[in-house]
Design brief:
Elements: E1 5-7, H1 10-19, E2 71-79, E3 88-103, E4 106-118, E5 124-137
Antiparallel strand pairs: 1-3, 2-5, 3-4, 4-5
Length: 141
């Protein structure tokens, strides 16, 4: 789940833009910037914590994230207006659609997670839709 409140800071936009090679306008956040909200969520499995293994740390064969076992299939962002330095967003996440599809190795189960980012006036700024997939071997073939 994303952080409840996510401050959009100019320095954070600049560092994010540099990391992806986009330094043209650092007053407007790059398209995938809202994913950085994980760093404001103390319980996010994507947020590194000192002295602890974290997803992608390379400290071993892998660190399991509770509820995982699937793959990240798609990510979509719908911007309702530009995201700018100085915005403070309120973040809410809810389940979206889910569906099954037969695959060669079994049944593929897809599920969406919808995250909405709203400004201090309550206006919708960004809608992010994440699609994950898990396989269920032996089913649906």
């Amino acid at each position: 789940m994303a952080a409840t409140r996510f401050p959009v800071e100019a320095g954070h936009i600049m560092m994010f833009a540099r990391a992806i090679g986009d330094e043209e306008d650092t007053t407007v956040a790059p398209p995938t910037f809202t994913m950085a909200s994980a760093h404001y969520d103390p319980d996010s499995p994507l947020r590194p914590l000192p002295g602890q293994e974290w997803l992608g740390s390379g400290r071993g064969p892998g660190v399991a994230v509770e509820g995982s076992g699937g793959l990240h299939a798609e990510q979509h962002f719908e911007y309702h207006r530009p995201l700018r330095a100085g915005d403070t967003l309120t973040v809410s996440t809810r389940p979206g659609r889910s569906w099954d599809k037969a695959g060669r190795a079994g049944l593929l189960r897809f599920s969406e997670q919808i995250t909405e980012y709203r400004d201090e006036a309550g206006e919708l700024v960004v809608t992010a839709r994440t699609v994950g997939v898990v396989t269920t071997q032996g089913e649906g073939t």
